[in-house]
Amino acid sequence: MSRLNLFTTKKPRKKASSNRKSRRLGRNLQSLEDRRMMAGDVATAELMPLESEYFETSTLDPAAQANWTLDPIADLVANSGQPLETMLTVSGDVETEALFFSASIVSTIEQQLDAQYDLVESDDYHTNCLGNNERWIRSANGGWFYVMPSGEFYQWQGSFAKSTLLADFDSSHYDNPDLIAEPESIDASVHVEGDILVITPDADYTGSFQVEIDATDGTHSASQTVMVAVAESIPEETDTPDETPTANEPLPVLMVIANQDFYYQEYGDTRQSLEAQGLEVVVAATTTEVARPHANSGQGADGGLVRPDLALTDVEAEDYSAIVFVGGWGASSYQYAFEGTYNHGVYNSTEALKSTVNDLINDFVEQDKYVAAICHGVSVLAYARVDGSSLLEGKTVSAWAGSAPSSDQPIYTTRQNIELNGGTMVQSGAVGDPTTVEDDVIVDGRIITAENYDSAAMFGRVIGELVSEPEYVDAVFAEWE
């Protein structure tokens, strides 16, 4: 043990309160106190062995005997400087409104070790001081720790045989012990707004971390841990494009969704096709609050939440090339002339909202612009009234033939909604290839309709092609000439 007298640096200063430590141990030899400690004569801090691996992500940990569970969330991908919103949902016999959600960032193993032992960053980690190629780290209270070439991290107990394994890192922590002594901070914030998880990484932060999500109804609780990977955001264009429309460019396309229960794939695939053709898309709904889709309607890991660009009351038809109503049963709230009451209260909107939607459709018709809808959204056109008649009277359309939301009226399908208002609806798969509904898109005058989510991609392509035709663009932009 003659090599123990190599440690004679001064006792480190007290740890600073700033986010990063400024202390550095010197390269000089340690005092007698240090030698005694390494020989096992000085009491060490309370032991707390830790695991170095992350907990398994996206796992469910419901409380025992609870009659509900917290639905798993897949690992998330965020961009630096941009908030990521994810809806938290549960399954079982409980109302979401009765739950309280919370979330917090899980400390890394390195951060936990540093917090417990107050490890000190050093200029010299005394490699191979005791002959095992170990590298040494000191704590501010005088304890010693070492990391082996393979990454195992130990608390020194007077000998290698008696030392306590605290974590099993990889070799990078041996190459750079600062990863343990000076762990990197997680520069992100996490909170919950109602049932929406909001994760906001700092503008210059990239990396990964874990978030623990908790839910409780006051009696039972459940939790899960999800991994969040943060990628660097792509810088936005610095040049401001000329926003003045020209006769060679179509106006944006307005997509209308419901704030509750719109069909996500019908929205997403249609929008993707429109934007692939270079068209700008603007989204409107009853309010600009986050819109939630039907469950299992094609949304991804982020839950399919969409924040509308503006409320329907703020829309001016003259600003758009076409209006598109997305399906999903939430579209029922826009049916102007429907006289019944839906069993699901969220589908029963105010007369003022219905009048706003009907006036908007009339404005598009008066300006000779395309009015489009997909799936149950076609029922909005059926109940629209232009000069006292249904917009679909005498028109042929494609739409979802299946069930419609329950109400106090003897109307059980979307087809009935259309046919009761004078429209003719084709059979499923009746357009183009009879073996598929992917091409079931019908254009009748200025009315464009599509069957359902299978047809959404072509629906967007057809709308994009029609509103981009030079003759149509010239007509829409006549006032600019």
TrEMBL record:
Q: Which domain of life is it from?
A: Bacteria
Instruction: List each copy of the DJ-1/PfpI domain by range.
Output: 354-463
TM region(s), chain numbering: none
Recorded hits in InterPro entries, A to Z, give:
Class_I_gatase-like, DJ-1/PfpI, Prot/Nucl_acid_deglycase
Q: Which SUPFAM superfamilies match?
A: Class I glutamine amidotransferase-like
A GO cellular component annotation here is:
cytoplasm
Which lineage ranks, top first, belong to the organism behind this chain?
Bacteria, Pseudomonadati, Planctomycetota, Planctomycetia, Pirellulales
* Positions of region (Disordered): 1-31
Quote the protein name from its UniProt record: DJ-1/PfpI family protein
Q: Where is the composition biased (Basic residues)?
A: 10-26
